[in-house]
Amino acid sequence: MELETLKELLGYGYFAFTILLVFAMYGYAYHMYKSEKTGRKSYEKYSDIVLRDEIHDTPVESFSKQC
Predict the structure, then answer these.
(1) Tens digits of residue pLDDT in 24-58
(2) Residue 32 structural domain
(3) Is residue 67, in this structure, part of any structural domain at all?
(4) CA within 20 to 30 Å of 42's CA: 23, 51, 52, 63, which one?
(5) Where are the transmembrane segments (predicted)?
């Protein structure tokens, strides 16, 4: 395989991978928007973790230990 052909294939692969990542990013953003709208998760609570990260602060979600 010639070098020019390899460079061309790598260019097409890079472009296709970039398009795939764009679709994945918009799909994830849509998923977050839909979850917030339906009330399954509140991502505003998770964004507040940065401000309240001391050891004595209450957790964002309660959890139970199941072994």
Answers:
(1) 999 999 998 998 888 888 777 777 777 877 788 77
(2) 13-37
(3) no
(4) 23
(5) 12-33
